[in-house]
Amino acid sequence: MELLPALAISASGLTAERLRLDLIANNLANINTTRTPRGGPYRRQVPVFAEKLREAMGQTPGLAPGRGVEVAAIVEDSTPPRLVYDPSHPDAGADGYVALPNINIVNEMVDLITATRAYEANVTVLNAAKAMTMKALEIGR
């Protein structure tokens, strides 16, 4: 087994999950933001991940073709904003309803937990590869 590609794959996973955690934190920070530069309430942002593939040419058959994960895009959630009746709010419409961001705190917390677990799993892989490398170096003594 090649250790350096395993380290690169885990590192790409760490980078992707860190970005996911950043987006979740940004979503939670803007849970009550009713004004944005584009107008209207804040829109929930989610990352779109894509697999990084090796070139098909010149690869040994039987080896895994993956090289990790990359962020293909950061997209805005298309669900409509939540409407809350609050006629005293400065951003309330003529009907008294305020458009709040389309963020559900329960979904964000579940995403936070899964991103944290995925990050921890990639750290475990990095530590295991490091331990295997150290043992291989000890054998060479």
What does the model show?
The protein has 141 residues and is α+β, with helices and mostly antiparallel strands. The protein has one domain. It is 44% helix and 20% strand. The protein contains two helices and four strands; from the N terminus they run αββββα. α1 runs antiparallel to α2. The longest helix has 35 residues. The radius of gyration is 22 Å and the shape is elongated. The two termini are 21 Å apart.
Describe the secondary-structure layout.
Layout: H1 3-29, E1 45-53, E2 66-76, E3 82-85, E4 97-100, H2 105-139
Antiparallel strand pairs: 1-2, 3-4
Helix pairs in contact: 1-2
User: Over the alpha carbons, how many angstroms does the gyration radius reach?
Assistant: 22 Å
Order of helices and strands: HEEEEH
pLDDT < 50 runs, ≥5 residues: none
Strand order of the largest sheet: 1-2
Major pleated sheet: 2 strands, antiparallel
